[in-house]
Structure prediction request, 755 residues.
Amino acid sequence: MKTAISYPTEGAMGKTGTWRVFRPSIDIGKCIKCWRCWIFCPDAAISKGEYPVIDYEYCKGCGICANECPVNAIEMGREEK
Amino acid sequence: MIVIDTANHISALAAKMARARVIAAYPITPQTTVVEKLAEYVESGELDAEFIRVESEHSAMTACIAAEAMGVRTFTATASHGLLLMHEMLHWAGLARLPIVMVNVNRAIGPGWNIWSDANDSMAQRDTGWLHFYCSSNQEVYDSIIMAYKIAESQEVMLPAMICYDGFILSHTSMPVEVPEQSKIDEFLPEFKPAWKIDVENPITHGNIVEPHYYARIRYDMQVAMERAKKIIEEVGEEWGKKFGRDYGLVQEYKCEDADYVILTMASMAAEAKVAVDELRNKGEKVGLVNLRTHRPMPFERLKYDKIIVIERAVSFGLGGIVYNELKGRVPELYGFIAGIGGMDVSYRDIERMYELAKEGKDGWYPIEVK
Amino acid sequence: MVSDRGEIMAIKDLPEEEYVLKGHAACPGCPATIALRITLKALGKKTILVIPACCSAVIQSLYPKTSFGVPTLNIAFEASAAAASGVASALKILGEKDITPVVWAGDGGSYDIGIQALSGALERGTDFIYICYNNQMYSNTGIQRSGATPYGAWTTTTWTGKKERQKELAEIVMAHHIPYVATATIAYPEDLYNKMKKAKEMKGPRYIEILTPCPPGWRFDMSKTVEIARLAVETGSWVLYEAINGKVEFTGQSKRILEGKERKPIEDWLKMQGRFRHLKQEDIEKIKRELDEKWEYYRKVMK
Prediction:
C-alpha cells in the first residue's frame, strides 16, 4: 500500500545553509546571553551552548539574529565562495 | 431476524452493526433518515460512536478522512448535491488509502430541483478511487454495507467504498430484510486494522509535497489495488453466502446461461429487469440479466457476452451512456439505453420494450429519442 | 523566570525542545517557522497538527521526508477545522485525553476559504486549538489578496492597492462564545508561548491568531521580520489581546496603548514595506482615521 507518508528528518531539504548570501558571526565577548538570536531563528540553526552556536550547514543567512541582537554582537558579512 | 424497514433505516442499522465508531454526516433529501436514525442510535447509547454534526458534506467527508487516519472505523451517508460537494475529498480519501464506507442515495442534480432517483451523482465520482457498489433491494443494501467494510479494509485493497441505491424507490420503501445476529457479524467483520495512522508515538507526516516520479507510483498502486479488489469482492461475497445464505460477486447473473441477449443494468432497475426477463422468457425469448452491482472496479471479465443491452440511469454529455461507452469495443453487439433520468419511472414493461427495440437494432434515450 | 501565574517571563526560560527540524523548505527570514517553533515548544509532542494548503505545507519539505517532528495530517485548503473535528472525535473513541488536535492554517485558509469549516467546528464545540498564522495575503501561491489584506496593500491581485479594509477574524470567532481567543505575534515570544500554554490547558474550541510579516510578500528585507512584527504592535496596527470565556483583556504593548500610552505613528510601519510604497497622502490619512476609529471602538467595547 502506497500513500504519501513522510518521516521526520534533519536536513529534509538538504544542507539549506548553501542558500546563504550573508554569513552571521557572533562576537561572544559582547554576548549577554539573552537568547533572542536563538528564539528568532526561523531555521532553528542557533542552539544554546554556553554561548549561541550557529549551525552553518542550515543557517540561510536571513540576518534576523543580527537585527534583533540588543548589543550588536552579531555581524553579517558577505559569504565568500 | 426479519426486519421490515426502509433502505435508509437498514443503512443505519448496518453501520451500527459494522461498529462504525465515528460518523460525520449532513442531512440531504433523500438520505436524511439515515442520519436521523444514526443520531438516535448514538444518543440512546445503542451505538458507541461519536456523531459529528457537521456544517456541510465537504466537512462530513473531511472529518471521516481525519478520523479514519487516526485508525478508527467511520461511516457517512449523502446524496446528489451533497456527494458533488464532497468530490474533492473523495479523491483525498482514495489517495490517502482510507477505507471509509459511505452510502449514497442516488438523486438527480439541479437545476431545477429534483429529488428523484438518478445515478449521475455517483457516476460523476467514478474516477475518485472509490469502490462503487449499486443495490437493487434493501437486503442487498444491508449485506453490501457490511461486506464493503471487509472488502475496503482488506490489506490488499485499502480503498474507500460507496454503496449506492435509488432515492425513494429504495430509500423510503419498506421491505423485509434478514438481519443476522450481532455476534455473527462480529465474526465476519474483524476489528479495523489500519495500514497507516496518525500517532504521537510515531510522528509521521501524511500528504506533504510528492514529486512526480513518486506521485505516479502512488497512483499506480491504487490501480493495482482496484484490480486486486475484484478477487476480494468475489471472496468476501462467497464467504457471506456461506455464512448467511446469500451469495454475492462482482455481478449477479440471472438466466444468462443460454441467453441470446443479456440485459445489463444496475440498482433498482435490475430488480425490475428481473421481472421483465421472466415475462420475456414466458414469451419464449432467450434473454438473461446481469445486475452490475460493482461499477468500480469494472468487472469486464464477468461481462463476456455476445449481445448486451445496457440500460442506465446516467449520461456523460457529449459521449452518451457511461457504462455503455465503457463496454464499447469489448462486446460484439452492444445496445445502450439511457432511461429513468430524473426519476422517470422505468417499469418491467419499459424494459421489455427496450429489449424489443434493441432486437430491431435501435437504442438511445428512452423514451425520448430511440433510433 | 516564571511568574506567579505560571507564565514565562524571559526568552531564556523557553524550552529547548525543537519540533521544527533544521533544513526545512521555508524562505530565509520566514515568520511562520518562528511562530511554529515557539508554538510547538509550548504544545509539546502530544500534538497532532492538521495543515491545509498554505506555506507550511511546503515548509514541511518533500516526501518521503518531513521537517516537522510532531504527527501532521495535511488536508485540503478549506477543510482543516473539519479534519480537526474528525481527529478530536477519534481521540475520544481511542480514550486519549492528553493529545491536542491543532490546526495550523494561514489567513487564506482561515479568513476566506476555510471560514465555513472553522465556524462549524467552533459552533459544535470541537476540542481543539485553531491557529491562524496571518501574513495578510496568499503568500504560498504568490502574494494574492486575502480577506486579511489591509487597505492599500499591493498584492498580485491588487496592483494599485487593495480598495477594501480587512475583516477581523478573531472578533468573528469571539461571536462563537468559545473558551479562549487570543492574538499574538512573533516579536513577543513569551507572550505567544504563554498564550499557547494557556490554550493547551483548556478544553473546547480555542483560537489563536499570530501576525507573521512575510518578507517577500510585504516587500521588506528578510532581516526585518521580527522588527516589523514589533512595530505592527507599537503602531497599533496589530493588537494583542486574549479573551477567556468572552472577557477580553489586552496584553503587553497593546494593553499599554489601551491605557493611554502613545501609539507610534503608523507611517513608521507603512514606510518599511514596499507593498505600501505607492500610497498617497490621502490613503495614509484614511488608514490613520480608520486606525483611530478601531482604537476608539476597543476602548468603548473591549475594555
